Amino acid sequence: MKLEWHNEKRKIKDLVPYEFNPRQLSEKQYADLKKSLEKFNLAEIPAINLDQKIICGHQRLKILAEIYGADSEIDVRVPNRKLTPKEFKELNVRSNKNTGSWDFDLLANNYDLPDLMDWGFTENELDLNLWKGEIGYEGDNKNGIELKSLYEIVIECENENEQEIFYNELSTKYKCRLLTI
User: Fold this and answer.
1) Where are the beta strands (DSSP E) in 69-165?
2) Is the dihedral of CA 114, 119, 124, 130 positive or negative?
3) In this structure, are 21 and 87 located in the same domain?
4) Radius of gyration over every alpha carbon of the chain, rounded to an integer in angstroms
5) How confident is the model at residue 102 (pLDDT cuts 50, 70, 90)?
6) Which in 53, 75, 142, 154 has the greatest CB count within 10 A?
7) What is the pTM of this model?
8) Which structural domain range is residue 170 located in?
9) Residues 28 and 60 in one domain
10) Read out DSSP for 87-139?
11) pLDDT at 130 exceeding the cut of 70
């Protein structure tokens, strides 16, 4: 029988954690996930087997019980048939392991560094060279990290008026930053 999924409502307290769930969160990851759930609630729905055993979403459920209480009712994904033990284990691992990687150029050019840091990224995960001089980032030169640009154009102007004209022209086509020395 082809495996199909549908949504159902369940009380968090009625769901059974998988005793061999290998997924763990650091304190920071836990705090970041909690912050996300507090802001966006349950955007990614946990999956359970027909016997109420949690396949994926253990950490979300643990935090939701803390935030809203174990008597809270939430949406869960339920299969049309019970998964075999091997299917169960495979989905449990794949739900966290089979993820993509980040396009750091897109992050650097379309997101603000303070936001990314607030949303859970760490200095070790990001190539901070892409964010040289990012306004508002408290980590500039923190822990001896020297931030450098990959590319840079310097335009020397005679006065502030000329600088403003150049900036206004360039900023309509390019991401620009004004530095006054």
Assistant:
1) 73-79
2) negative
3) yes
4) 23
5) confident
6) 53
7) 0.64
8) 151-181
9) yes
10) HHHHHHHHHHHS-----HHHHHHHS-HHHHHHTT--TTTS-GGGGTT-TT-TT
11) no
